Structure formats: C-alpha cells, structure tokens
Amino acid sequence: MSNEKNLVKAIKEKGNNLEAEMSFFDHLEALRWHLIRSVIAVAVFSIIAFCNFHFLFNTIIMAPFHPTFWSFRMMCYLGTLFHLSGFCIDHINGHIINTEMAGQFLLQINTSLLIGVILGIPYILWEIWRFIKPALLEKERKAASGFVFYASMLFIVGILFGYYILVPESVAFLAGYTVSDTINNQFTISSYLSIVSTITLLTGILFELPIVIYILASIGILTGTFMRKTRRYAIVIIMIVGAIVSPSPDILTTTLATIPLLVLYEVGILVASVVEKRRLKKHEELMAS
C-alpha cells in the first residue's frame, strides 16, 4: 500500500515538474517571438532611415553644427531681448572631416541603425508590456495600463530636450574651446555623431526616471518617505549625472541638464507616495479581513 502511495506521489511530482518545464519553455518561446518582432521593427525603421538618409543627415543630424539651428536662433533672440552679451552664437568654430575610406558608408549604416532603434523604442516598450501583462493581476494591469504611453512620451521628451537644449550648448562649447591659436579645430564625423547620439540617448533614458521609480515602488523597494529623507543625497547625485550628460563644463549647460532631472525626481516622489498609500491601504484591508 505504501509503495502505491509512493508511486502516485512520484507520478504527481513528475507531472508538476513537466508542467513547470513546459510553462518555462512556453514563456521562453513567447519571449523569443517578442524579441524577433522588436528586431524586425528596428530593421524596418533602419531601412526607412537609410533610404532617407540624406534628408535626415542634413536637416537633423548636422543641424546643431550650424548657427542657423533653432536653438541658436532662440538664444540670439533671448540675448537681444534681455541684453545679454555673449549669449548669441553666430559661428561654430571648426570643420567636420572624414579620415577613413569607408567612413561615410559606415556612417550611413550606423546612423540608420541608431535612428531605427530610437524610432523603434515605443514598439519595443509595447512588446515588453505584452510579455509581462499576462503575469499581472487584473488590478496591476489597470494600474500599469498607461506604461507604454507614458514611457514612450518621457523618452521622446528626453530625446527632444537633449537634441534641442544640451546638444547645441555642448557642440558650441567644445567646437569653440581652444588652448592655442595655432591649433585648428577639425572634428571627425564619428566624433561629432558620438557627442550627438550619446547626449540625446542618455537624456531619453534619464527621463524614464518616474517609470523606474514607479516600478521600484510597486515591488516595495522604494517609498515616497524614503525618497524625501534622502532628497539631499539625490540632489548631489543628480548634479553629478547632469555634469556627466553635458560634456561642456560651463554652468549654464550643467544647470540646464540638472533642472529637468530634479523635476523628474520630485515627480517620482509623488508617484512613489501614491503607490505607497495604495500598498498601505491593501495591507489594512488584508489585516481587516
């Protein structure tokens, strides 16, 4: 009799293990298809960017290197309006050169891939949401229903902020910085593209701070109370990050990079506080029942 019980128990355990293994491989297969679709989306956007590269390169990528760029014109307008001397930038000191035989061809390919990734971020976020959605409870799904929209909007706003605010200031400063009049500034196109892409992508990622705080607060790692207590330390860290994001050491660019991060941190405190209150309410309801 005991042998039969042991046999039945072994069969049940084997069945549970097989079910768990099948569930794991099912999730792995689902993840694989989410990744494949994301790669296809990035490839499609990259091909579109490659076919329209000359327009994108001349009107978007190289725009911050010309004094006619929108940001420089606004600076000149504000300088004239408030009588600020030296605020108007009407000349970029330097020339863009290519030093490799296949440099411009590789530039077109790499830049098209980069543009494809940036344009594909909203779709990638949507695929991430589709993957994690089945594992969430109904209340959790409703609470995180705007994840793709808010994450995409924050990323786009961060990209635009970096492109229109930080990139022009950084390019103007670095191109105009000289240690001797005998040195002529000539920058490789890869160096220029690295500055533009790094700043824009970093600001796009940093603007996701409220989303990251929401996720950490939802799983109980962060609370609004803790963030308020550590605000002074967070300000120091944010100032360091702002100095890293803006390669120019002038106080104006660093301040421009720091202020939005401080605002996002305060928004994060509000988000974490709302999540904290919601968790406390659920805990009280559970204890009451």
TrEMBL record:
Keywords: Cell membrane, Membrane, Protein transport, Translocation, Transmembrane, Transmembrane helix, Transport
Subcellular localization(s) per the UniProt record: Cell membrane; Membrane
A GO CC annotation given for this chain: TAT protein transport complex
Main location: membrane
Membrane topology: Multi-pass membrane protein
MF-aspect GO terms: proton motive force dependent protein transmembrane transporter activity
Endpoints of the signal sequence: none
Any GO BP: protein transport by the Tat complex
InterPro entries: TatC
Membrane-crossing segments per the record: 35-57, 69-93, 105-126, 147-166, 192-221, 233-249, 255-275
The protein's assembly and partners: Forms a complex with TatA.
Family: Belongs to the TatC family.
Record function comment: Part of the twin-arginine translocation (Tat) system that transports large folded proteins containing a characteristic twin-arginine motif in their signal peptide across membranes.
Protein name in the entry: Sec-independent protein translocase protein TatC
Organism from which the protein derives: Mucilaginibacter mallensis
